[in-house]
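Q: Can I see a sequence and its folded structure?
A: Here is a first one.
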Amino acid sequence: MAYEVTFGIQVMDEVMYADYRKGISALLRDHGGRFRYDFKVSDVLISESDSPINRVFIIEFETKAQKEALFANPEYLAIKAKFFHPSVGSTALLSEKG
């Protein structure tokens, strides 16, 4: 059974965020992951979080261990620091299952 993670984020800089996504694509694949869904959100009607979001996506991995390995990978962390942090205002982990 696959392991899924659903995030909500607030993208502040679309160009830089696209660079982040491009930068992690091979690493994500190498760790058995892929984006299943990716939505731009125009209106949030109900939120249990104080973090504003304008993007929701689901990432699927073959196992939880592969997800953890990607998020701890030094190359991923460098790409995240360079592109994700400056382009995203807030993040919310919406669900994990698998």
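Q: Show me another, different protein.
A: A second, unrelated one:
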Amino acid sequence: MKQTEWVLCPVSGSKTRNKIREDTVLINYPLYCLKCRQETLIEAKKLQVIIIKEPDA
């Protein structure tokens, strides 16, 4: 069975409603946290989550 992990919010550090597996690839995924009510863009590969910094408009 493949390893799975909860995706943690980069702001508050709490668990979100999303899980990823070893073979999951996310690109420009809008991650929403119910606790801090913020949305962040992330990328995920091999259980590594990277926060995407967007330039302010």
